[in-house]
Amino acid sequence: YQFSADHSADTFQSELAKLVDTLHRVLPAVSQETLYKDFNLGYQTVRIASRIDPTQSEKLRRLQLPYVFLEPRTWRIYPGGTLAAQVLGYVQQDDQKSNGIYGIERQYNTLLTGKPGSFTAEFDLSGNPLVVGASSEQPAVNGADLTLTIDSSMQYMTQTALADTVKQLGAESGTALVINIRTGAIVVMAGAPTFDPNQYGKSATLTGCLGQESVFFNPVVYCAYEPGSIMKAVTMAAALDQGLITPDTTFDDPGYRTFNDAPMVVNWNGLAYGTESMTQVLEHSANVGAAYVAHDILGANRYYPYLAKFGFGQATEISPQEEKGSYRTPTNSPRLWSPSDLTRQAFGQSIFATPLQVAMAYATIANSGVMMHPYLVSAINNNGRIVTTQPEALRRVISAHAATLLTSMLMHSATNGLAQPAQVPGYTIAAKTGTATTQGLTSDKTEASVAGFIPATNPLFVILVKIDRPQATIYGGTAAAPLWKAIGQQLMWYYHIPPDAP
Q1: Same domain for 328 and 450?
Q2: Any domain includes 93
Q3: Structural domain of residue 417, as residue ranges?
Q4: Helical H runs in 367-501?
């Protein structure tokens, strides 16, 4: 609403107090002090409020207050509020223009904006177009419509449950992601805390995965972290694919070991498991076993090509606001790399990856070793011209046989190992937990996570849950697994997937 008046008029001065009181009652967010200040600036016209809600607008319209008039404006409205806000981003608008900020709004800003129309003509002194005068008209072009792959119902359930989990555990933040294994389509992409794009200014001080003011970034693609023991599945995938191990290959696990004078590798719980199969390495989440596979069996020359094939250290191209992650190799960091990097990367340290990269690695295992291209936009309707996104297979990463073997190992991990709390009644799952200590922080500041797929016998969905620095419990199996289970149950029910387990 705007205000316009002759400030010298006696009637205006006599009605000012009543006007201020009425406006403040209808618009409580605007103080009486502010109204008096605005009205006495001496300007002919002053804007007293912007983007008021329809109820307030209707009240003011009925009151027919003197000196006050409505100026209709077009604004971007987000009916879902916080729903998928970090995926969407928001539109920043002023009198002259609007721009997409963050997320889909920024990525497709030009396509969504369209072009304003115009009419040019010669006018007489009264402002009427001359009949014989020159004129031209440029019709407005509407912006395109995007259809996303996000399922709003599953997004809402997951986003709500994630926020509750973060709060209950006293965590700083959290992330949850669901991907269609067969197509690469993103079904759910959630972060907590999040923001309301209708009121983005009020969220500027919220803390996201990168600290203050990072709540607007999508943590699934922007926040790289050390994945922890979730990466042990990738280490096993490299060795299985090259025929260097089988699920039953054994080694002696003393609970600790030094590799090439590098810092000692110790199992997370300090236990020595003795003779241990590769399947049991995943079941126990044994750091020594994973380091043994990477150092003694694979070596740098046979390990690092698989990190690249799985997409680590590379953008997925799902968003321009995307972190690629990083890891040292003898090639890219010849002066800094050491055997300690190799042994630690085997169990998810000394490597940084986004939740999306980790989830896509598990989706590749579930998809018989073939990596799909992840995508968020399923269709673009540009004024009647519709372009749909077709699922795209990027490459074969491991053989179907290796993927089958690894799936059975991950199923065993979910049944007998630390991922047991993620089990979904009536369905098989293949999953692995991760508990990574955040660099530079104390050992109780962890990134607790679970990654896996369901149903394991006929994989449809990959789920990744990550809880950042929980306080109530710090482990992937206790902090992240219950939410993983809840999401898995909801997916099976929502999509009517028949049970595959007794």
Answers
A1: yes
A2: no
A3: 152-494
A4: 400-416, 481-494
Cα–Cα dist 356/411, whole Å: 22
- In order of 86, 241, 279, 449, 464, the CA distances from 213 in angstroms are 13, 43, 43, 24, 24
Residue 169, both tokens: 């555990």
Q: How many domains is the chain built from?
A: 2
Which H/E stretch holds residue 251? strand 250-253
Tens digit of each residue's pLDDT (9 = 90 or more) over 477-492:
999 999 999 999 999 9
From 38, 69, 100, give the residue that closes a domain. Answer: 69
Helix axes 152-168, 481-494, angle to 10 degrees: 160
Q: Which residue has the tokens 């280490």?
A: 235
The string of DSSP letters for 113-178 reads H-B--EEEE-B-TTSPBPTTS-EEEE--BPPPEEEES--HHHHHHHHHHHHHHHHHTT-SEEEEEE
Q: Return the CATH number at 483.
A: 3.40.710.10
Half-sphere exposure of 161 (CA within 13 A, CB side): 24
On whether residue 293 sits in a domain, the answer given is: yes
Short-list 334, 338, 366, CA closest to 464? 366
Please say which residue of 69, 85, 119 terminates a domain.
69
Q: How are the residues of the chain apportioned to helix, strand and coil, as percentages rounded to the nearest 5? A: 35, 25, 40
- C-alpha span between 349 and 343 (Å, rounded): 9
Amino acid at 200: Y
What single DSSP character describes residue 260?
T
Query: pLDDT tens across 70-123, in order?
Result: 877 777 889 999 999 999 999 987 766 788 999 999 999 999 988 877 777 777
Report in angstroms the alpha-carbon separations of 406 from 184, 251, 447: 20, 18, 24
